Structure formats: structure tokens, C-alpha cells
User: Fold these one by one.
Assistant:
Number 1:
Amino acid sequence: MTITSFIPPQRTLMGPGPSDVSARVLSALARPTIGHLDPLFVGMMDEVKSLLQYAFQTKNEFTIALSAPGSAGMEACFVNLITPEDTVVVCKNGVFGARMIENVNRIGAKLVVVEGKWGRAVDPQALEQTLSKHPEAKFVAFVHAETSTGALSDAKLLCEIAQRFQCLTIVDAVTSLGGVELRVDEWGIDAIYSGSQKCLSCVPGISPISFSDKAVEVIKNRTRPVPSWFLDQSLVMAYWSGEGKRAYHHTAPVNSLYALHESLLMLKNEGLENSWQRHQLQHQALAKGLVELGLEFVVPTDERLPQLNTVYIPKGIDDAKVRSYLLNHYNLEIGAGLGEFAGKAWRIGLMGFGAKNENVALCLAALKDALAKA
Amino acid sequence: MTITSFIPPQRTLMGPGPSDVSARVLSALARPTIGHLDPLFVGMMDEVKSLLQYAFQTKNEFTIALSAPGSAGMEACFVNLITPEDTVVVCKNGVFGARMIENVNRIGAKLVVVEGKWGRAVDPQALEQTLSKHPEAKFVAFVHAETSTGALSDAKLLCEIAQRFQCLTIVDAVTSLGGVELRVDEWGIDAIYSGSQKCLSCVPGISPISFSDKAVEVIKNRTRPVPSWFLDQSLVMAYWSGEGKRAYHHTAPVNSLYALHESLLMLKNEGLENSWQRHQLQHQALAKGLVELGLEFVVPTDERLPQLNTVYIPKGIDDAKVRSYLLNHYNLEIGAGLGEFAGKAWRIGLMGFGAKNENVALCLAALKDALAKA
């Protein structure tokens, strides 16, 4: 095959992520590469840490950007904290809860599952009942914003319950960070991970993570080595510690971190609460329009993620045909269904930079056209 | 702290990596983000695969770009192939051989180490003797180009020996790929990993890997799950397979892959042999100048990596002061020593786009000035 430079089209990304990356962030991404141990780069990493602490609303000393996607961030939380002796309660209400289960199983820890409904929030009562039957449980893990269904769980309440049972919490904030209220310290979250490519509107490939002091203690007191060298956070801590000489662990993804720095700075300058409110307002406008088009939401109103709108594909409509039409005719990407919702639902993202009037208007107009033609 | 956009200086990167990234690759990096399941992106990934097959000189079907740095590439090779029952022979002649040992230990497999000298190639006779004493050995692992010392090992011969003893080979090509002769199929390498930020002169964060059909068989015949979900290549294969519908595993680092595509295309257009020759020629010019400055090479002539020149720091010279002067006065980065060579040697990279006349000239002139002032 003859290969030439790849020139991608200018899409509007309204799927479950990656979301639209602004020209400002792309321009930061393309700044000249410098060394990962360059004093100026090390200074920038301190700023990334401080900006991440703001985004997570935490004072956690251990708050870093992992050099790999959100699924590696999930794994970093699980493999560093959990050993085979531990009992872990996982609340499952979609694909990413199922992936947490996969992580627990590979560690060989004892697993207790709180089975939830697809398209619904995690049921706090079900968690409470499960914990009262399992006093040996040491961890509670759940997904704040289920990217596979568009459901938002009450992270504050779930953490309260977990704490009442002396459990540490592991929270998936891949799609929630920056898009809906999230307060790591106030809610007492012990380990949290996110992704760069959702409501931060940065390029994909980086996973912000944060561990509470209690979680760091658990890691420090491990006697069994973490199965993964790459994800062993006791080694990574030495690189991000900021005290004295940085210990080399691996080469940081320098340019992606420029982009993350810029996107976090944009979030800080807008203000976290303003960003949450913007996502909510844009969601309301989109939701109104989608209902007017005759589309039905999968998730009940008060459990909906503003940044990810999941609607049933109307009967008789060809899923792939509509999505292809939107892509080819309008350069507009919306997301297919995943897992139980494959072929049954669309996932329409309003994330970060993409949560704006023009995207809502384009999406509604294009979908109206596509549905009329389908 | 008040945080503003981070504007890095324009450095010349002549350390052990990241190497200088060309404006052409940076510009590819900053192209508009599209979805990781977009048909156009999937087509680009097929091209990345084909370009990687060229760079590795392999027809291996399983040739991909892992969404994480080289150290994750190393771990992917080890955790997918090796189970606790296996005996693994690791040839250690620097930091990265030691990291291989760390990987084997975390898997809990049986480890046999061929201890080598720092700054020297792996001794083929020592490998042969070790293998004749360990008929149970199933894998031989070694580093082709030791980034911590600048030593080049005879990968072809080491693979020949391993094959004579019916062992599969795992080869670290992080610093070698694109810079020195490397022929995966002809030499019979079974698992190989590299990094984007060395002789490919792409941004850091991606690890090209390739598995032979024999290695893929080993993975397919595993009964024990891979300890890491993120690095489980049986899951990743489904995403990169190119046959029919791609299975979602994680969100690919879209923009970094644009950059990798461009840097691999530049390598293809130059021609692999031409690139190897360019590295050799630039190395000769640099080496001549370094010797003229009175600097002494760590590695004997016929075991030297052209792309990484390791020289002893002259007696009485302040390591950190010289490197700071180069950085602050000339925007020139050279590498500190690592491991046994910390404080004792400098590592001067001539990698990929950086292996050119202007970098050699700048480095020699700047070093001359710095040494005179030190």
C-alpha cells in the first residue's frame, strides 16, 4: 500500500469520548518537546498536580497524571490497593463496573457484586444491605458516571455508606471529572481515576489519579509487591514527589502533558462550578430537542449524566446507517451503544469544550435530517 | 500559585530520549482529534501497523503500537508470555536488563541471570553456557541497545543461541529501532518492544511491539489469565485485528498515533538502511570530536551504539554544573549517567531526527566551551 501523511477531517465529536479538543489545547500539544527531567518540565508537572488537585477538589499529595489511558488508571487503583486476601464490593451497573470486576478477579481477591440495572444509578440501599452481610469487606468500588449507559450515581452517598462500614472507596470518574459535581476530599473518596479525553477535552492517553493519605498508607504497608511494575505507584511517587531529585521511572508523555496542563488551566479559569453548570444547561437544551424529535431517554431524569445522553434508537431505524450519515454528511460523530445497549441506543456526548450551543444546534439539526431520511 | 500557559523553550535534545521531534511530526500531532473508532482512524491504524512491520522488518500479524511508554511495552511482553511455571534467562548488562529481572520476579517465574558488565555487550558465550546448564529454560530476554550504558549487543547471535536451545526470545529494542540494524524475522525474534521517543523521533508515550506467530500461540494457549487487564494482548488483538468490527478495549491515544504515523512514514521514505547509515556516520563525526576534546568512551569501539554515546566525565569536572550550563546557555540537553554510571558518565544521544550535522556541531562546540569554563 502507498502511504502518505494522514490528514484527518475536522469532525464534531459528540460520542462518549474522545470529545472535541480545542485549537488552544492542540496548539499546546504541538509545542517543542523538552526532556522529561528538564527543570522547566518538572516545574510544569508541579502545576499539573496543583491543577488536578483543583479539578478533583482535593488536597491529596498523591495526585498525578498517569502516563496511560483511563483503563490503566483503573488498574493502577486496583492493583496498588488490593491484595488477594481482601474482600472488594463492586457496584456494577454497566460495562465499566464489569471491568472493575475483571480487575478484582485478576488480582485474585474476594469479590462481592452489587448487581445494578443497566441505565440506572447504583442503588445505595443495595450497597448498604450487601455491606451489612459482608463485614469482612475492605473496599467499595463504583463508577460515578457510567459511560456505557449515561447514568450518574450518588457518589457522595455511596462513599458515606462505605465509610460507615469502614471501607475504603475506589471511584471511576472517567466521564464525571469536570462535567458534574465531584468533591474528593469532602466526600471522602480514597482512590479515584479519570481520563483526559472526556470532560477535560484533552487528547486521549492520560489518566489523572488521586489517592487519599489512607490509601497511600495501604500502599506503603504492602508486603506483597504490586503485580505490575509499570503501574506500581510506590515507584511513580518518587518521580512526582517534587522533593529533591526526581527518580527516573519511565519517560513521561511530555507533549500530552502540555495539552493536559492547558486543558486543566482552561477549566480552572472557567471555574469548576461554572463548568458543571454549563454542562447542565447544554444538556437541558439538547434533551428538550431530542424529546421533540421523538427520542426516548434510557436513564430517568434525576439519574442522567448531562455530559452523556443515552437515547433508544427508534424502531425500524438502522443504527449504523444513521451514524454513518451523520459522520459523512455532517462530520458529526455520535456514539453507538455498548454492551447490553449495542444496537439499541445512541450515546450523545456533551463533554468539556463540546458542551456548547453550536454543538447542540448541529446535533439536533443533523439528527432531524438523518431520522427523516432513514 | 498563579498558573499560566506553559511555553517550553526550543531545546536541542541530545540525551537518551526523548529525542528532537521535528516540526513535521509536531504538526501531525496537532491535527484535529477524531474518534478512535472512526473508519478513517481505523484505516490509519492499519497503515501504522504496516509501517511498524517495515521498521521492525517483520511480517508478524501481531504488530501494534501499545498505548503507553516503552516500560509498559516491556511489561506487555513479559506478562503475556510468561507464567510462574516458566524459567526465564535474562541477560543483564545495565538498568534495563535489571528491569527485565524485576518483571520476571513480579510474575513469580523462575529466573536465571546472565550477569554482564556495565558498558559492555552481552557475552554470547556466557548465554550459551547458562543455557546448557538450564535445559528447562523457555525464554531468553536481553536488551539490544542498553540505554543506560550505550552498549550494543549482537542480537542476531544471541537469538541464534536461544533458538539452538529451543527458547523463545524477548528483545528490548527501545533505543535500537531505527538507529541500528534490526531484523525481527530474519533473526527470529519472538517478542520485541520499542519506544516512540528514541530513534523514531516521535513524542514519548507509545510503545511499538511485535509478537511472532510462535509467541501468539503461547498467548492463545495460556490457561492462566494475564495479571494485567490493560496489558492483556489477547484483548488488544481484537481491537487491532483489522478483520470486521473492532472490539472496544480502551480509547487509543489518537493524536500521538498521528505523530507516530508521520515519524514512521519519514523513516520509510528515508529507507531503513539509510537511517542506520546516517546514525553511524553522525556517530563517527561526534566520536572523533569527543575524543579530540579529551573525553573517553565507556564502551569499546565495536560494541558502541551510534545513537547513544557514553563518555566518562573528566576528573575534577562538576557533572551537574556542565549539564546546567549546556541547558541554560545553549538550550542543549545531554543525558546524565544512570545506575552505576550516575555522576560518572554523560550520555549523548544522536537519535532519529537529531542525528544530523548541526546537532553534532552544536554539541561539540558547546561542550568545548563548557569544559573550558568548568
Number 2:
Amino acid sequence: MTNTEEIVHNLATLAKAASYKLASLTSEEKNRALLAIAHSLDENRSYIKAENALDIKAAIEAALAKPLIERLTLTDQTIDNMIASVHSIIKLSDPVGKLITTRTLDNGLELRKIRTPIGVIGIIFESRPNVVTDVAALCLKSGNAVILRGGKEAEHSNRAIMKVIEDALNKIEFTPHAVQMVPIADRSAVSYLCRLTGLIDLIIPRGGEALIKAVSDAATVPVIKHYKGVCHIYVDETADVAMALDICHNAKCQRPGVCNACETILVHDKIADSFLPKLYDLFTKANVEMRGDEQARAICPGMKAATTADWSEEYLDLIIAIKVVHSTQEAIDHINHFGSHHSDAIITDNKNTKLKFTKEVDSAVVYVNASTRFTDGFVFGLGAEMGISTDKLHARGPMGLEELCTYKWVCLGDGQIR
Amino acid sequence: MTNTEEIVHNLATLAKAASYKLASLTSEEKNRALLAIAHSLDENRSYIKAENALDIKAAIEAALAKPLIERLTLTDQTIDNMIASVHSIIKLSDPVGKLITTRTLDNGLELRKIRTPIGVIGIIFESRPNVVTDVAALCLKSGNAVILRGGKEAEHSNRAIMKVIEDALNKIEFTPHAVQMVPIADRSAVSYLCRLTGLIDLIIPRGGEALIKAVSDAATVPVIKHYKGVCHIYVDETADVAMALDICHNAKCQRPGVCNACETILVHDKIADSFLPKLYDLFTKANVEMRGDEQARAICPGMKAATTADWSEEYLDLIIAIKVVHSTQEAIDHINHFGSHHSDAIITDNKNTKLKFTKEVDSAVVYVNASTRFTDGFVFGLGAEMGISTDKLHARGPMGLEELCTYKWVCLGDGQIR
């Protein structure tokens, strides 16, 4: 065992022991801990912002893209949001112990399907230091122990927030080791963590392709991927043009640095001649760089040329790929092939096309005549979110408290045999 | 790409294409296919039994354990059960397209959480050729394409049943490639299959330690393990002795070759002196070999000595491990450490002990005063079962039609932007 492995193994062992205790806590005990965290965040604003400034300085020096720096930055507003998020999780009903279904066999054996915590969850994430509080609060409320591992670019911010959480929990003598962070930068820590069958119950990688691939390749414990959002809008031949323009503009420009922003627009060729020039003007005014396929550029020669790589690119910036398609089937096939199974929209007025698209697009969230920007745990009514699962197993789309639980069957008898 | 990889990649590509078609089939179309399979099984009994005889002959020559040969054997009774199982799946309600929940946002956007097939499922299993029909029928009804890979010991039987299914589906011109079997014995086929991200959506390994470990280590696609059943009965100090004897006898002897049979009995030391001699007599009459720890053997010297390896052994035979424990906590810790998180029971008359045990034992099914033998999809009201998941993610315990589905969010708007 290397030194790194020893440190990680120790973290995981402590987390497992904590998880058994967390599973038995009352909602009141858990909410008390959350309240302590919220207070502590408020009291330590200047410490958190000072540490965050170190990360921002490094990001500027490393010339990171603007939206990435935006995601990294903690202002009083962001900290307010972090605190509000903890308070909203306090208000959510506790999923643990809820009876999902029940059934009594003819012999009198009573089966109860009961919601329980998963156990120990490892989350590996990039940028966005506010993930630390969201994840800690959600795991805590759902009775799970959690081990966090953030990205290098937010190192100081993450560590500062973690310290604030730890101090708050220690002060009220909460179950120790409920929330932990991997204390070393060594990359092998992640691949080792992902192989601790029996100690780690679930790994959630939340980030880009390199992170997701590294974790999937290394892991032997279950993984729920929170992959990039290569979100599409398909403008069908029957689309309401004004609506389509509004939605394309909103999905690309309102907040380009997030995973539910649109990255590719597919346009039916029957509407391309009238639609694309208007889209071109709109995006030009909004400073959006357009990368079109050959047919799109024949209509709007001002677009740059798209390459195959553009079809699977998550720009997280004011850049968009544009392609002309010749049928709904072609749009569906393109989305299923190049997309990331996150959020995809169709703008159409045709009932059958709508039905075909929602049935056949293999994504977590499929929109009809609406912006992809709505994919969000809070918007969907799940309270805060752990992230957006782009996988199909266990949780798909926004992952909230219920999705952080599993269930067990408890069967109550009085001597039944088979 | 090796020849094996090419064959497996081709299977998976065909399955993926089939999965999109299967997702859109009506319940009537799927039930028609199931009916054709049921008829075809009935018509081809002698062919199936003749091929099965080849496997049994080989198993006897290889001196396989009796319960293993029992699991391998197809009689007219077993074939009746296979047919009955297909008919029972026809009668089950179709999970696909069911509305799980719905919510309308203030802006009028309507969110619908809808049950959908998972896509392409790979199942890797050992012995029990009747798994082929159960799995094919369940996947078909839930709109999933499936790729099966059985064990060498049931090679002829599996292939024969697969041929019967294929012929039945071809005859009614059903969606091709819905049910496929890996046609080669090469072991590398399995590890390659488990890494086909984008083509395979889920791998279910169903079998013993070596199989589960090989698949978990190799896989990059999601895995739901159907691991062995190291099931426990904990006889608490307050247990009703007659009830405890009945349940121990039933859980060990009624059908020792199945995963929900009991493999270890834990006895509280306060009841051990009175309970163990009675258990010893009962098991001696039933030809059960007992392997006790030191304290159990001090009471019943006729028991063989258990080694540490016995605590995690799935005997699948008339053998049982017996250990004296000194508290409910010790019993729980033993089960969580050595068990396989399948099915575990407590025999007790104490309310608090009952509660502690059901909360803290980390298993798919936890029984109070009942035999572990009830863990079964059919008994639990799920219809037939794909197997028993010993994992915590997505499905835990018996896996039926609903557990073979995921969901998507379909959001219907009229121009909503954020």
C-alpha cells in the first residue's frame, strides 16, 4: 500500500463506520447539523472569499476561459446562494425510512419496501466550489457519508469551505467523519478510491470527458456519471420561427458556462433558408461565434466551418455549432450519436414529430418547445441537486435527496416458512 | 480488433439498433412474441431435453456437486415452469410509457417523468438453463434488447433454448436481434462486452465470486451484481426456540442449492446451551454437515470445526456454519462483514432488537421471524425475476420488469425560456 492508498483507505474506513451511524439519525439531528453549517458559512464569508481570491488569481494567470472563471468565483451573492441552498435542504422532507410500498403475502408475511441511505458516496468534481456545500448538505440529509475530491483549480476555495463545514459539525459534536475531503493532490488517490469495493458504495464523477473516462476506467464500485451537457435544439420544419429564435438565444446566451446550455442547433432544411439568416443576425448581435456545416454556410457564409469535433464539443462559451438536417430521424440519430444524453429540445408544431422525438431521443430530459436551461434539481422540484446524471441507471437527470437513497425490503413474520 | 471482439461488437451494434425499435413496440406486439416463445418451448420439449442430457452427462463425468446438477437439469416439470413463467410475464402490466410523476411549473412547462426501457442489457450467468427464457421474456416485455452469455456447464441446453426462442421470433417476423446469445466460448468475449460504452447500457453478472469479480474488474459500463447468497439466521436470546428450529430447518434444507438458502446460523450465547443441542439433533437427522466455532463445538462436540473461510462460504449444499455471538451488535457486524448483502433473518421476541437488526443489517432483504427462502421476484409480486440484485444502486433484491426500466423527463412547453 502506498502512502496515498493508506490515507484514502483510512478515510473510506472512517466514512463506512460513520455511514452506519448516519443511517439511524433523526431528521432533527440532521437538520441541526445543516443549520450549524449555514451559520458557519455566514460567519466565515471573508475567510472563504480570501481563499477563493487565490484560486481566481491562479486561474487568470493560467488564462482560463471566462465562463470557467465565472464558475469558480465566489461573491457575497454566491455565498448567499450557498446558504440559501442549505436552508432549502433543511426544509425538504427526509427521504430515509419512508415506506415506498408494502404487500402482505397470503401466509401473513408483511413485506415493506423502505427507503434507506446508500452508504458512502464519493464525489469527484471540477471547478464550482459551491458544489462542496450542496453535496455535503444533500448527503448529510439523506444519511450518507461523503468523501469529496475537487479539482486543482478550486483547491483553496474547496479546502476553506470544507474547513468551515468541519468546524461547524465538530462544534455541535456531530457524528465524526460524515463529510470528508481527500487531503492530497496525488491523482492516484482517485483511482484507488474508485476501487474500494465494500467501503465505497457509489462514485459520482461530475465533469468533463477526461475525468469521466478516468473514473469509469478505474472504477470497480458503481458509478453514476454526471457528464458534460452537449445539448441540442432541433428546429423542425413546422417550428414557430419567433419561438425558435427566442429559445435558441436563451439556451445559448443566458448562461453559457453551464451544462444545460445549448451547444448545437439542428435545423430542418425546409426551414433553413428562412430561419438561419435570422438566427445569424441574432447570434451576431449577441457575440456568439457560429460554426456551421456546409449547407448552413451556403445560406450564411459568415459562419465559420464546423469540423466533426464540433458535434460533440461542450463549449461552455459563446460558441455554437449549427447543422442542417433533412428529417426528424436524422436529427434524432445525430443527437443520440453525438450528444451526451443530457437535455435536448425540439421546436415543432407537429404532433407526430413531437411524439417521435420525445420517444426516440435517448436523453435524461427531452423538451418540446422550451429551453434546455430548465434542467435543474431545484426547478424540477427536487430541492437542491447533487448534479445531473447523464447515466440511465438508478438516477437520470437531476439527482436530489431521493436519488441519493436506495431501499431495502423488511419482511415481518411470525414463523413463516416456505 | 480480434475476431472475438469483432463478433461481440457486431452483436452489440445489432442489439442497440433493435433496442430503439423495441422501445416503441406496443404491449400487444410484445405479448404476441412471448406467446410464440411459450408455444415453441412446448413444441420442442424433446429437443431441449436431449440437448440438456449432454450437459448433465458432462456434469456427472466432471463430478459436479449434486445441487449443481439439480440446478442444471431440465425435466418436463422444469419446462412446464419455464412456459408458465413466460405466460405469467404476458399477464404482467407493461411498465414502458407509464407516467411515474408529473409537475407543472408556474410558467406552464409540464414535466412528465416517464418509465422507459434501459436499452441493451448484457447478462452473464452460470448453470440454470431456465434463466434463458426468464431473461429473454423479461427483457422483451420491458422493451430491452438482451445479449446472453451462459456458463460452459449448460452450453448445449442454453443454445437449444436460444434456438427455440429465435425460431419462434423469426416465424412471426419480430424485430430482429432483440434476443441474442454470445456464440463463442472465448472468455475475452465477456470482458470486451463489459467495456462497450455507448452500445451496452447495463451488464448483469449472476453467479459466484469469480464471475462477479471478473466482470466488475473489466467493466466500464454500469453493472448490477447478482452475487451469491451467504444468508444468515440470527437466533436472538429471546427467540421462540420451536420457531427458530423450524425456520433454520426450512432455510437450510427445503432447497439447499438456491441463493436464498441459509448458510450461517448465529446464536446468542444466552440461548446457545438450550438451542444448539436441539439444532444439532434436527440437522443430524436431515444429514446436514455442521461446522461450528469453538464455543458451538464446546456445546455440541459432534460438529466439525469451522475456519474463517466458512463465514463467507456459499455452500449450496447440506452444509451449514454455526457461530455463537454475544450481542445483537456482534451478529449485525458479522453479517455486514462476511455476508453478501442478500437475505438475512433474525428470530427474536424483542421489539428493540428487531428494530436495530432491520435498520442496521445492510442487506437487500431483512427478515424478522421468517425463513430467508421467501426472497424471490414471484413471491414478492414482481412477476418473474431477472435475478436478485445484491447491489444497492438502481435495483436491490428481486429484479422484475420495473427494475429493468429507467425513466426520462419529457417536458412540454409553448415557448418557455429561463
